[in-house]
């Protein structure tokens, strides 16, 4: 840093001497220097003007980026021949989600969905077979039994399944194509709490449209086959995809997979998992690219509490592929608001056109025999205009060239090393300051004021709430640096500090590139963009302005260009993570997590304010910080007092269960939630209705109470209301699941006991068996839970396809002592007896009536209360009473379960 020279350095005279002409010249020179400095800074004027222009430039970039992010192709109408049609896809989605409704594994609606898909496939096959020269069209239905281990965020259980269904179709050019195929996967079942229009009705419908088009194209030029898998058991923790990739005859021909999923209601589907260069090449052909290696990295960390069938294909089939999913509007994911009406127009068209482009490349151009797994990739799209991909080998070289150029550019300024180090440290301090300031506000909201999640109802609310305090955190280190410097006046800017901090920011990104390059983190490409833009800004500055003055304003405008990329990154990140906080558990510090995330994103948007701050006088900089502090207090006060965390279309998720313990004849109403948001009003409503005070369950009890949704039960907080005093339900529920020991023998020599267990559960769809034992062998495929010494509880969660009502387990345990077991079952009529607002059961009445179509079990979407049952479902009396008092800003799961405790 080179401060302006003091007057004594310009001219000296002896003490007591009379002023001379040289003294007045010196004063004039000093005044000129100060005047120039003041004019350069404009006593803050230049800083203000450049800041205003830069903010306007930011706004232009943000508007353009948001427009690009939100832009979707126009939906194609029905009847447009061999062109992908969103209109046609929506017809299928309505048939699945509205006419059939909830399609849980083990319900008759599951069977209806299977029949619907087969009906459409056979119609397409008849058309294709009637035209010469079309692809060979094969259809198959797989029913399978099996088991596998499932892990989610550190919690594991064993999944068992019987009679799960897969609907499979294959298009090929004949035997020469059959040995190498690409797999497309979606699932036609829905989760326990949703009619599943987007998840995964969209995937089902997109694949039906794709096979409609491809089956009517001449086979000439086709190099590879394509297998379409509509699996019938994904929501039971990926049972059907496991069955296909481990048991179906086609599995040996599959070379790669494209998985179509949804964890939101539309927008652009994101490429969030990829593990092959050739598959990335296929994706580079799509007309609407949207994906980044960043999402790939984030998903691998397990921070996103969701998973797809892609896991089964990779782990059990050793496949390469792409995982694509909707993620915008995730507030409605796995709720009764996941209906066709809430799927954003154009999003299905986007999904379909991209999928078709990939298939065209893979079927007609790609050599699938040479395809291999390769995680050594960086990929991203540029505002949906261009998809960029390259290997880490190329990236390492580019990164170190940029690092070298950054260091060289800083050295060319010939500033003292100590000044450069201080400026670089201040840049890191500002980065950390932004994060820490937002963290402090998050902690205050969650633990101090105790108003959590006031930002939840809009993805962009965290920016409004946390931005002022985050900017304070960024500017305070710069204010400290300014106060420690030796500027001529606190009323002027300091161009030396401005240049030093600009270089410090550049070096900061160079250091971050080096660190993330070594760790091979995808975010390296973002830091590289910033560093290159700052380097180009320096070139602009060198070209247009002398080194002795403030940085040329045009340099800031050039250096700000990555703001567009950062804006899209931030939109996508907040769209993903803000809704997810509504299902990460009541103990998750959601405000802290979102605060830290917003602080980090904020710095990536605002790093140019660090050098720009030194165009202002120290006094003006202090005023800006004070103004931001006042703004932060006003904004925070407004959010705390006026903004509600939940509303109808951004609801709080509730879980309601009527549980009967047939071992001790107790009955309970369980109310659970999965976020740190308020529960007081909800609990009070149930207290008023039941006349009972609740018991807050401990974590272990909650896991047992909600074993039907394990392992998600580990992220719930549950309240139990004893309703044993209420009159027994009528009609009564079916008898609970029955566990029978058909063989029990003990081997004294090995001190082991051999058991053959059989379970029958008519009237129930899912069963869960929990016990502690030192199991040394069993009839299940997984071996990881054997020989655990009996320390950890083993959970076996079973699902059976429709119709199924039995399962078997053979096992050998160490010791001859009795085993304490708990067996739970999910009552089938919870779903079989759902009715629409007119009281019609699925499959009855007219599907075109205004409002909710038959079988959807939905009221008006805007209300968010959707559960209605026929009088044949006795447990509905308890559940409906609870549903009737729930606030409109909630959405719920309502189930009836039974539990029995056994000693075997």
From TrEMBL:
<dbReference type="InterPro" id="IPR045175">
    <property type="entry name" value="M28_fam"/>
</dbReference>
<keyword id="KW-0325">Glycoprotein</keyword>
<feature type="transmembrane region" description="Helical">
    <location>
        <begin position="46"/>
        <end position="67"/>
    </location>
</feature>
<feature type="transmembrane region" description="Helical">
    <location>
        <begin position="522"/>
        <end position="542"/>
    </location>
</feature>
<feature type="transmembrane region" description="Helical">
    <location>
        <begin position="390"/>
        <end position="412"/>
    </location>
</feature>
<dbReference type="Pfam" id="PF22249">
    <property type="entry name" value="ERMP1-TM"/>
</dbReference>
<dbReference type="InterPro" id="IPR007484">
    <property type="entry name" value="Peptidase_M28"/>
</dbReference>
<dbReference type="Pfam" id="PF04389">
    <property type="entry name" value="Peptidase_M28"/>
</dbReference>
<keyword id="KW-0479">Metal-binding</keyword>
<keyword id="KW-0378">Hydrolase</keyword>
<dbReference type="GO" id="GO:0008235">
    <property type="term" value="F:metalloexopeptidase activity"/>
</dbReference>
<dbReference type="InterPro" id="IPR053974">
    <property type="entry name" value="ERMP1_1-A_TM"/>
</dbReference>
<keyword id="KW-0472">Membrane</keyword>
<dbReference type="InterPro" id="IPR048024">
    <property type="entry name" value="Fxna-like_M28_dom"/>
</dbReference>
<dbReference type="GO" id="GO:0046872">
    <property type="term" value="F:metal ion binding"/>
</dbReference>
<protein>
    <recommendedName>
        <fullName>Peptide hydrolase</fullName>
        <ecNumber>3.4.-.-</ecNumber>
    </recommendedName>
</protein>
<feature type="transmembrane region" description="Helical">
    <location>
        <begin position="624"/>
        <end position="641"/>
    </location>
</feature>
<feature type="domain" description="Endoplasmic reticulum metallopeptidase 1/1-A TM">
    <location>
        <begin position="427"/>
        <end position="610"/>
    </location>
</feature>
<keyword id="KW-0812">Transmembrane</keyword>
<keyword id="KW-0645">Protease</keyword>
<keyword id="KW-0482">Metalloprotease</keyword>
<feature type="region of interest" description="Disordered">
    <location>
        <begin position="1"/>
        <end position="24"/>
    </location>
</feature>
<feature type="domain" description="Peptidase M28">
    <location>
        <begin position="166"/>
        <end position="357"/>
    </location>
</feature>
<dbReference type="GO" id="GO:0006508">
    <property type="term" value="P:proteolysis"/>
</dbReference>
<feature type="transmembrane region" description="Helical">
    <location>
        <begin position="500"/>
        <end position="516"/>
    </location>
</feature>
<keyword id="KW-0256">Endoplasmic reticulum</keyword>
<feature type="transmembrane region" description="Helical">
    <location>
        <begin position="460"/>
        <end position="480"/>
    </location>
</feature>
<comment type="similarity">
    <text>Belongs to the peptidase M28 family.</text>
</comment>
<keyword id="KW-1133">Transmembrane helix</keyword>
<feature type="transmembrane region" description="Helical">
    <location>
        <begin position="424"/>
        <end position="448"/>
    </location>
</feature>
<feature type="transmembrane region" description="Helical">
    <location>
        <begin position="554"/>
        <end position="580"/>
    </location>
</feature>
<feature type="transmembrane region" description="Helical">
    <location>
        <begin position="592"/>
        <end position="612"/>
    </location>
</feature>
<dbReference type="GO" id="GO:0005789">
    <property type="term" value="C:endoplasmic reticulum membrane"/>
</dbReference>
<keyword id="KW-0862">Zinc</keyword>
């Amino acid at each position: 840093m080179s401060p302006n020279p003091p007057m004594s350095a310009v001219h000296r005279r002896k003490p007591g001497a009379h002023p001379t002409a040289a003294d007045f010249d010196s004063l004039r020179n000093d005044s000129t220097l100060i005047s120039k400095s003041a004019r350069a800074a404009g006593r803050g004027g230049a800083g203000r003007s450049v800041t205003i222009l830069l903010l306007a430039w930011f706004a232009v970039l943000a508007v353009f980026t948001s427009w690009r992010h939100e832009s979707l192709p126009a939906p194609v109408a029905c009847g447009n021949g061999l062109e992908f049609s969103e209109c046609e896809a929506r017809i299928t989605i309505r048939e699945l989600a509205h006419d059939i409704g909830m399609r849980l594994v083990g319900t008759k609606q599951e069977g209806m969905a299977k029949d619907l898909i087969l009906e459409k496939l056979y119609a397409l096959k008849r058309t294709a077979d009637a035209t010469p020269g079309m692809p060979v069209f094969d259809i198959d239905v797989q029913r399978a039994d099996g088991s596998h281990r499932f892990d989610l965020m550190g919690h594991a259980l064993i999944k068992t399944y019987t009679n799960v269904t897969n609907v499979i179709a294959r298009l090929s050019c004949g035997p020469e194509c059959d040995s190498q195929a690409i797999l497309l996967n979606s699932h036609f079942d829905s989760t326990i709490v949703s009619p599943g229009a987007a998840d995964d009705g969209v995937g089902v419908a997109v694949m039906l449209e794709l096979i409609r088009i491809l089956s009517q194209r001449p086979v000439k030029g086709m190099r590879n086959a394509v297998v379409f898998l509509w699996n019938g058991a994904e929501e039971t923790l990926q049972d059907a995809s496991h069955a296909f990739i481990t048991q179906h005859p086609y599995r040996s021909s599959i070379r790669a997979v494209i998985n179509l999923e949804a964890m939101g209601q539309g927008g652009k589907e994101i490429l969030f998992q990829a593990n092959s260069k050739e598959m990335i090449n296929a994706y580079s052909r799509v007309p609407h690219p949207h994906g980044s290696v960043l999402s790939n990295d984030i998903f691998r960390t397990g921070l996103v509490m969701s998973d797809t069938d892609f896991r089964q294909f990779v782990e059990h089939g050793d496949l390469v592929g792409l995982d694509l999913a909707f993620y915008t509007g995730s507030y409605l994911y796995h709720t009764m608001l996941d209906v066709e009406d809430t799927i954003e127009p154009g999003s299905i068209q986007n999904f379909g056109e991209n999928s078709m482009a990939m298939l065209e490349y893979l079927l007609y151009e790609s050599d699938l025999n040479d395809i291999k797994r390769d995680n050594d990739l960086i990929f991203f799209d540029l505002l949906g205009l261009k998809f960029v991909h390259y290997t880490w080998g190329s990236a390492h070289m580019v990164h170190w060239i940029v690092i070298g150029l950054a260091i060289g550019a800083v050295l060319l300024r010939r500033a003292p090393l100590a000044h450069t180090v201080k400026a670089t440290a201040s840049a890191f301090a500002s980065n950390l300051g932004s994060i820490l300031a937002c963290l402090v506000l998050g902690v205050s909201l969650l633990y101090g004021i105790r108003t959590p999640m006031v930002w939840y109802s809009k993805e962009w609310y965290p920016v409004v709430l946390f931005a002022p305090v985050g900017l304070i955190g960024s500017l305070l280190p710069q204010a400290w640096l300014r106060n420690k410097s030796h500027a001529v006046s606190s009323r002027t800017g300091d161009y030396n500090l401005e240049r030093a901090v600009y270089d410090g920011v550049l070096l900061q990104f160079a250091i971050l590139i080096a660190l993330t390059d070594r760790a091979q983190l995808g975010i390296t490409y973002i830091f590289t963009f910033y560093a290159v833009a700052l380097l180009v800004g320096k070139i602009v500055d060198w070209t247009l302005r002398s080194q002795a003055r403030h940085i040329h304003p045009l340099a800031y405008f050039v250096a700000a260009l990555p703001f567009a990329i950062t804006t899209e990154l931030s939109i996508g990140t907040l769209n993903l993570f803000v809704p997810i906080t509504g299902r990460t558990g009541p103990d998750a510090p959601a405000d802290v997590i979102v605060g830290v995330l917003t602080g980090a994103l904020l710095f990536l948007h605002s790093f140019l304010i660090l050098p720009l701050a030194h165009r202002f006088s120290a006094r003006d900089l202090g005023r800006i910080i004070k103004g931001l502090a006042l703004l932060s207090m006003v904004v925070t006060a407004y959010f705390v007092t006026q903004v509600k965390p939940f509303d109808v279309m951004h609801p709080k998720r509730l879980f309601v269960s009527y549980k009967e313990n047939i071992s001790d004849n107790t009955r309970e109403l369980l109310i659970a939630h999965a976020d740190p948001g308020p529960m007081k009003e909800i609990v009070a409503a149930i207290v008023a209705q039941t006349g009972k005070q609740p018991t807050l369950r401990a974590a272990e009890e909650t896991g047992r109470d909600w074993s039907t949704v394990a392992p998600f039960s580990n992220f719930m907080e549950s309240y139990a209301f004893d309703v044993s005093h209420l009159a027994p339900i009528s009609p009564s529920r079916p008898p609970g699941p029955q566990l029978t020991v058909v063989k029990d023998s003990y081997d004294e020599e090995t001190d082991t006991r051999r058991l053959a267990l059989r379970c029958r559960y008519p009237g129930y769809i899912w069963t869960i068996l929990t016990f502690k034992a030192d199991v040394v062998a069993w009839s299940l495929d997984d071996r990881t839970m054997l020989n655990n010494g009996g320390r950890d509880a083993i959970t076996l969660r079973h699902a059976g396809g429709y119709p199924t009502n039995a399962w078997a387990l053979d096992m050998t345990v160490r010791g001859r002592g009795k085993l304490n077991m708990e067996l739970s079952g999910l009552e089938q009529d919870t779903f079989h007896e759902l009715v629409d607002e007119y009281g019609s059961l699925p499959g009855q009445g007219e599907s075109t009536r205004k409002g909710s179509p038959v079988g959807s079990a939905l009221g008006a979407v805007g209300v968010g209360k959707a559960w209605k049952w026929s009088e044949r479902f006795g447990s509905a009396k308890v559940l409906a009473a609870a549903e009737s008092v729930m606030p409109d800003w909630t959405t719920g799961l309502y189930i009836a379960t039974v539990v029995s405790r056994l000693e075997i």
